[in-house]
Amino acid sequence: MEKVEELISEKEILAKVEEIGKQISDDFKEGDITIVSVLKGSFIFTADLVRNINLPVEIAFIAASSYGASTVSSGELKIRYDIDIPVKDKDIILVEDIVDTGLTISRLKEYLFELGAKSVKICTIFDKVERREKQVDIDYCGFVIPNEFVVGYGLDYNNKYRNLKNLCKITM
Ligand code: IMP
Ligand code: MG
To answer: Which bound ligand lies closest to the C-alpha atom of 161?
Structure first.
């Protein structure tokens, strides 16, 4: 059986999400925002974040898998579910649950630019910066976390634990 231990409490997470929402509301006060939420992991963060942004927001979802360094097609992006709204000339915020190697988010950013986005900011609630393989600028970051496998607040292990309200470290 897996052992699950809290790293970051629900209270700390929600306070941070509120702070990020305020920051985004300040930074974007001139214009509209299009949120592109990366499924499945960021569905909970996205739901909390958008309710802390006091501006008009459009929300779209995308699901992708990128092949990591362990496969031949390193960094190749496969879109499994695509956005259903136009992004041409729009200011986008890509919302992620966690940035690990950085491969997925940097390919998704390129993809949105290929579709004609005017700007693309990256917002992640967790950042495992030690594991980075591909340098990527993170515009809004909740917590830098240690190099542990984590679950909760949307993140899964074998499709489970996404519903935990806090962030936990999991050991097998
Ligand atoms: P990367 O930055 O391309 O390596 O991949 C990031 C994706 O890997 C995230 O969106 C998560 O879906 C998944 N991931 C990375 N680290 C963890 C973790 O500790 N727990 C759960 N999922 C993770
Ligand atoms: Mg993910």
So the answer is: 1
Q: For residue range 88-134, what is the model confidence (pLDDT) as tens digits?
A: 999 999 999 999 999 999 999 999 999 999 999 999 999 999 999 99
What separation in Å is there between the alpha carbon of 68 and the centre of ligand 2? 13
φ, ψ of residue 121 in degrees (nearest 5): -105, 150
What per-residue confidence (pLDDT) applies to 74?
Answer: 54
**Residue tagged 């917590």 (tokens):** 143
List, chain by chain if needed, residues with CB within 6 Å of any ligand 1 atom.
41, 66, 96-105, 128, 149-151, 155
Q: pLDDT tens-digit profile of 132-147?
A: 999 999 999 999 999 9
What are the residue ranges spanned by the domains of the chain?
11-148
Q: What is the pTM of this model?
A: 0.95
Per-residue model confidence as pLDDT tens digits over 80-90: 999 999 999 99
Q: Where are the alpha helices (DSSP H) in 28-136?
A: 43-50, 103-114
Which residue has the CA at smallest separation from atom 4 of ligand 1? 101
Residues whose Cβ atom is located within 5 A of ion ligand 2: 41
Please give the positions annotated as active site: 100
For residue 109, the CA-to-ligand 2 centroid distance in Å is 14
CATH number of 11-148: 3.40.50.2020
3-state secondary structure of 94: strand
List Cβ neighbours of 131 (8 Å cut-off, separation of 6 or more).
100, 101, 147
